[in-house]
Specification:
43% of the residues lie in helices and 16% in strands. By secondary structure, it is of the alpha/beta class. A six-stranded parallel beta sheet has the order 2-1-3-4-5-6. Strands 9-8-7-10-11-12 form a six-stranded parallel beta sheet, with helices on both faces.
Length: 335
């Protein structure tokens, strides 16, 4: 039996829980020759002493295969390199920081943890390419393993509401680009549903552009999020940067047309199953929405392409890539 431990950050109040849900789904279908347990650190990743405690807790809970599942990359500092896997979801924080903060994050969240890992997994080729800008390591040390679509998301047919489509926005972080999207939607008859906490600047942008919007600022169950996909007409994902872009795959699975960006990982995830726009060009975003609203033939083609594209994100196939990696690490550890 191969003993594997998933090391997970302590959840922040009102924080993003997607990493934890994703790896729980992998544990739920683990094969009989692998026993995956998980360790949630007792403290949040903040401050020097709490992070030292996280490093110590990882050391004292190590197994035959140790997998840092994301965010708390530095937790592997005392773990043996030969049997440690590090998952890095994106390098966005390095793109958003400068000066001493950038230096600390680059070295203690990326360069040193990468050196202490036998294998690094990322969710997209775009993230791999971004990571190689910041760290020096053999390219084959970094393995691309996509994210799978949770089984709660299923195809549900819906007649498109051309007169006033419901546009669903997942996430409100700065990279989600909502102020520009608000300017692009000005004058377009639509209902804009936004999941996530809005800051004052974004809310002002929505009101100044006379957007009919609804903000859902609460934690939802997976089934409730799936229901939002099913009830909408368009999924908006015109981000400036994404490590993967899960809403694209989830919208494809549900049968909803997607408007997304022509940059970062989004073309890789969407393939030919989305309307691509320049996220920095308001006119491009506006034309993208108008194209899927007004061009029924084009919209239906994108939806059909999306149903086919979603097959790439099968849970069993992607989970097996992790299981095979655990077997490989465990076998090398013995030899």
């Amino acid at each position: 039996m191969i003993e594997v431990v998933h090391f997970q950050r302590k959840r922040r109040k009102n924080g993003n829980h997607s990493i934890e849900s994703y790896f729980k789904a992998i544990r739920d279908i683990q094969p009989t020759d692998i026993n995956i347990t998980y360790k949630v650190f007792s403290v949040e990743s903040s401050g020097f002493f709490r992070r030292v405690l996280i490093i110590l807790q990882a050391f004292f809970n190590r197994k035959r295969v140790n997998h840092i599942t994301g965010d708390i990359h530095f937790a592997n500092f005392l773990l043996p390199k030969k049997n440690t896997i590090l998952t890095i979801h994106d390098c966005g924080i390095l793109n958003r920081t400068t000066g001493i903060k950038h230096f600390i994050l680059k070295h203690f969240w990326f360069i040193l943890p990468a050196k202490k890992a036998k294998v690094i997994t990322v969710n997209s080729l775009a993230t791999k390419n971004d990571l190689l800008i910041y760290i020096k390591c053999p390219q084959d040390k970094i393995k691309v393993i996509n994210i799978f679509v949770p089984s709660v998301h299923k195809f549900v047919a819906k007649e498109f509401n051309k007169s006033k489509p419901v546009i669903l926005q997942l996430g409100t972080a700065p990279n989600k680009n909502i102020p520009r999207i608000a300017q692009a939607l000005k004058g377009i008859s639509c209902k804009y549903i936004i999941l996530g906490k809005l800051d004052q600047e974004t809310e002002i942008a929505l009101k100044e552009n006379s957007i009919d919007f609804e903000n859902i600022n609460q934690s939802l169950k997976d089934e409730e999020v799936a229901a939002l996909y099913q009830s909408c007409d368009i999924v908006s994902f015109a981000s400036t940067f994404e490590g993967f872009g899960m809403p694209i795959a989830e919208a494809n699975t549900t049968g909803r047309v997607v408007v997304t960006s022509n940059t970062s990982s989004m073309p890789e995830v969407a393939n030919d199953a989305a309307e691509f726009v320049n996220p920095f060009d308001i006119e491009s975003i506006k034309n993208g929405f108008l194209n899927v609203i007004n061009n029924e033939e084009h919209r239906n083609k994108l939806i059909a392409n999306g149903i086919e594209n979603a097959k790439r994100f099968n849970k069993e196939e992607i989970a097996n890539q992790y299981f095979n990696l655990y077997r490989e690490i465990a076998t090398q550890n013995i030899s």
